[in-house]
């Protein structure tokens, strides 16, 4: 829990600086890129995590790798490096995205379904949950999960809305077991 709080502090500080300098969009994009690099380039992360390599060389790699980006993102990455939290780049990017979404009145939702949802179905789900949550909009990331049997499972933040047939059958089974006791 403590790590989550610390990661949020980095994201909040960067978000505040980005808002003050009116560069929120570009910082969000750069953090997304940094997250992709951290998740997909094992050699990059291994180099930055290697204790035998000096901090100066690691910071130089950050400078050259993200030279096209803002000084704010590069400095944040260097702060994570100094604190021994360079592996937290994806979490910082996610926390920043959550702050951005909140400021824009939007939410990110992962929708699990048996099959790929049509654009019209995604729009209906997005509108329904935007209204339910009091948001301007909800962005849908549809993931196919054939084990659900039917229905939808929607995850927004830490909340899960489960209207799948699998879940309904589990509840019926639980009720039958309780009645028979």
Which properties best describe this structure?
4 strands; 8 helices; four-stranded mixed β-sheet; Peroxidase, domain 1; 2 domains; 181 residues; transport; alpha+beta
What would a concise description of this structure say?
The chain has 8 helices and 4 strands. By secondary structure, it is α+β, with helices and mostly antiparallel strands.
Topology:
Elements: H1 2-20, H2 24-40, H3 42-49, H4 55-65, H5 71-82, H6 89-104, E1 106-113, H7 119-133, E2 137-144, E3 152-156, E4 159-162, H8 165-180
Parallel strand pairs: 1-2
Antiparallel strand pairs: 1-3, 3-4
Helix pairs in contact: 1-5, 1-6, 2-6, 4-5
CATH superfamily assignment of the largest domain?
Answer: N-terminal domain of the delta subunit of the F1F0-ATP synthase
Strand order of the largest sheet: 2-1-3-4
Radius of gyration: 21 Å
Tell me how many strands there are.
Answer: 4
Percent of residues in β-strands = 5-15%
Distance between the termini: 39 Å
Q: Report the top-level CATH class of the largest domain.
A: Mainly Alpha
Low-confidence stretches are none
Organism: Terribacillus aidingensis
Family: Belongs to the ATPase delta chain family.
Subcellular location: Cell membrane; Membrane
GO molecular function: proton-transporting ATP synthase activity, rotational mechanism
């Amino acid at each position: 829990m403590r790590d989550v709080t610390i990661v949020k502090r980095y994201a909040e500080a960067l978000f505040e600086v980005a808002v003050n300098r009116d560069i929120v969009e570009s910082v969000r994009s750069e953090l997304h890129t940094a997250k992709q690099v951290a998740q997909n380039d094992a050699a990059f992360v291994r180099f930055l995590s290697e204790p035998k390599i000096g901090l100066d060389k690691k910071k130089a790699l950050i400078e050259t790798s993200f030279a096209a980006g803002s000084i704010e993102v590069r400095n944040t990455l260097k702060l994570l490096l100094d604190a021994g939290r360079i592996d937290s780049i994806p979490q910082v990017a996610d926390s920043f995205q959550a702050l951005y979404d909140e400021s824009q009145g939007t939410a990110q939702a992962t929708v699990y379904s048996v099959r790929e949802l049509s654009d019209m179905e995604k729009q209906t789900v997005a509108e329904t949950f935007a209204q339910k949550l009091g948001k301007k909009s909800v962005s849908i990331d549809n993931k196919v999960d054939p084990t659900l049997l039917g229905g939808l499972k929607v995850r927004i933040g830490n909340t899960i809305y489960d209207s799948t047939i699998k879940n309904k059958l589990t509840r019926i089974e639980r009720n039958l077991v309780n009645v028979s006791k």
